[in-house]
Amino acid sequence: MTTGPSSSAVDAPVAWSRARTTAWGAVVGCVLLVAAAWTGRADVGAIVAPLVVWAAWTWARRPAGDPAVHLVDDDVAPQPGQLRARVRVEAPAGTAAVVLGLRRNNRTQARALVRVTGPVREVPFVVHTVRTGPQSVADVDATALGPGASSVSETADPADRSALVLPPVRPLGALPLPARLRGLSGGHESRRPGEGGGLRDVHPYAPGDRLRRIDWRMTARRSPQLRELYVRREHALAEAVVMLVVDSRDDVGPDPRTWRGLMRPRAQDPTSLDLARTAAASLAQAYLAVGDRVGLDDLGVLRRPLPPGGGRRQLDRIRNALAVTRPEGDPVRRTRAPQLPSGALVLVFSTFLDDAAASAAAQWRAAGHRVVAVDVLPTLREQLLDDREHLALRFVRLAREDRLAALEDADVELVTWHGDPQVAFAGLARRAQRRAGAGAR
């Protein structure tokens, strides 16, 4: 019967080794000391002897034990585009310093020499990233150094930690509105009479009108004898219902060679899904800031959508839902577009590399929604493509241009996010400012 390794063998500390410079220094010192004794050079012996004694003394004081490294959360609130953590180093007694190595995406990003003044030392670090969603913070390993750097421990097992990076938010100006406004509160003027909006008309006083609405100047002008009173009537304020629809089936980078999945996009290149998350979060904040209701749906999965809502907590829900949105297995084939609230403004974020998102946008427009297609395909880099890849990309681009042209024919408005989306959205907003409460053409 075979038995596993004993607990003493498993728990035994890894032996420390001499540093290469210390070992060579001790060997050379001993040789010189013997040569000085053989030749009778006392001056050489007086110079070399302290070095040999120091090497033997530091080796005798080498620590006993293994270093350990852990990653813990940082107390500082994370900012968009930043990953914060603290490296906790547990070093055995007698350790002078620790060499920390930080690695991301199998590439060494930084190395630091940290002095150890106690059994535990914590070092904060910040990693800047252009990616969003779940990702690894870093892989951190540690190598301990003994007194005088004469001894070196084995490298401790690397520690890693995952984090959820929320999409950043870009400021936006004027935004388009849906065809119909809803509710009795909000930040937009509706067509219905009410309170809070601009002047609608001046009308003779009728039962039910409030006395504080009486316009005494108009009354004195039209009825000097005060036989009839005139009141000012205003437009009611209403809110818009906005649905953000993200196409998570595609997550492509600016290098077309990575689209087949054999290569990963570079860490410094935002992918189409990163752009979609940023665009959706920015538009959600802009609409929620003026009192509108915003919801979220995903074309890539069969999951219950986030219903429209308002307030700061709704923005937090949307950003967290966007951060965890990613391609999941085989793309979902839908026979029809998902059902959306009546009269909602639909914003579709997709690369439009296939017909699924374009077909859904056309169906929503045919159902009476105002639909804006937001193109999130990154700016492509074609310098490293060969002739066959150039030809394949040309066919893909022609099919995509035909698809976008068909969307325009279906009265779906197009916006490119990676350019200057603020100007494009402002242009769409001006198209609907012909009369109060009119959101679409």
Q: How many alpha or pi helices? A: 9
SSE pattern, N- to C-terminal: HEHHEEEEEEEEEHEEHEEHEHEHEH
Strand order of the largest sheet: 14-13-12-15-16-17
Instruction: Calculate Rg over CA atoms.
Output: 34 Å
Write up what this structure looks like.
The chain has 441 residues and is α/β, with parallel strands linked by helices. It is 29% helix and 28% strand. Strand 2 and strand 3 form a beta hairpin. It is built from 9 helices and 17 strands. The strands form 5 sheets. A 6-stranded mixed beta sheet has the order 14-13-12-15-16-17, sandwiched between helices. Residues 1-14 and 434-441 have low confidence and may be disordered. The protein has helices spanning 7-11, 20-39, 42-60, 216-222, 272-289, 312-323, 355-366, 387-409, 421-430, and strands spanning 17-18, 68-73, 82-90, 97-104, 107-115, 120-128, 133-145, 151-152, 159-165, 188-204, 230-238, 241-246, 293-298, 306-309, 345-350, 370-375, 413-416. The longest helix is centred in the C-terminal third of the chain and has 23 residues, at 387-409. It is elongated and about 130 Å long.
Task: List its traits.
four-stranded antiparallel β-sheet, 441 residues, 29% helix, 9 helices, disordered N terminus, alpha/beta, 28% strand, disordered C terminus, six-stranded mixed β-sheet
Task: Please describe the topology of this protein.
Blueprint: H1 7-11, E1 17-18, H2 20-39, H3 42-60, E2 68-73, E3 82-90, E4 97-104, E5 107-115, E6 120-128, E7 133-145, E8 151-152, E9 159-165, E10 188-204, H4 216-222, E11 230-238, E12 241-246, H5 272-289, E13 293-298, E14 306-309, H6 312-323, E15 345-350, H7 355-366, E16 370-375, H8 387-409, E17 413-416, H9 421-430
Parallel strand pairs: 12-13, 12-15, 15-16, 16-17
Antiparallel strand pairs: 1-8, 2-3, 3-6, 4-5, 4-7, 7-9, 10-11, 13-14
Helix pairs in contact: 2-3, 5-6
